[in-house]
Design a protein that fits this description.
With 140 residues, this protein is α+β, with helices and mostly antiparallel strands. It has a single domain (10-139), classed as Thiol Ester Dehydrase, Chain A, CATH 3.10.129. The protein contains two helices and six strands. The radius of gyration is 16 Å and the shape is elongated. The two termini are 29 Å apart.
């Protein structure tokens, strides 16, 4: 299945990883929970590279919603191309999106998902405004 990424989504990170034998379940394909781990790893790598480091005594990102749609099975052995996008910076949130395809067939999306990221004041346990530098980074 070919997934079109709307123009408002900005490609911010791309990585490749190998499917590990232990990622599979009893049915012989990658367990659905692993896809969320793949997306999480990409999101954390992008955030770290972008200077988005949570401060438990201050502010930082929290995921408030996550989803994944599965189109084709991934299994061992394989190599996956993961692309991460961001969009829709609002007052306290932005959206992250991810596509996963086999490196051998990058035009065929096997899974696509994402997460809503909210900026939180950790001591107060309340949403707070996205820093301007982060909003600009998402919207550029």
């Amino acid at each position: 299945m070919k997934i079109e990424i709307p123009e408002r989504k900005k490609l911010v990170y791309e990585t490749r990883f190998v499917v590990r034998w232990g990622d599979m379940d009893a049915m012989g394909h990658v367990n659905n929970t692993q896809y969320f781990r793949y997306m999480e790893s990409a999101r954390i790598d992008w955030m770290t590279a972008s200077g988005i480091n949570p401060d438990p005594g201050g502010t930082g990102p929290v995921i408030v919603n996550a989803f994944c749609n599965f189109y084709q099975q991934l299994s061992y052995p394989d190599e996956v191309l993961l692309k991460m996008y961001v969009s829709d910076a609002a007052r306290t949130t932005f959206e992250s999106w991810t596509t996963m395809a086999r490196v051998s067939a990058p035009e065929v999306i096997c899974a696509a998902g994402g997460a809503t990221v909210i900026w939180v004041d950790f001591p107060r346990q309340k949403a707070t405004e996205l820093p301007n530098w982060l909003r600009d980074h998402v919207m550029q």
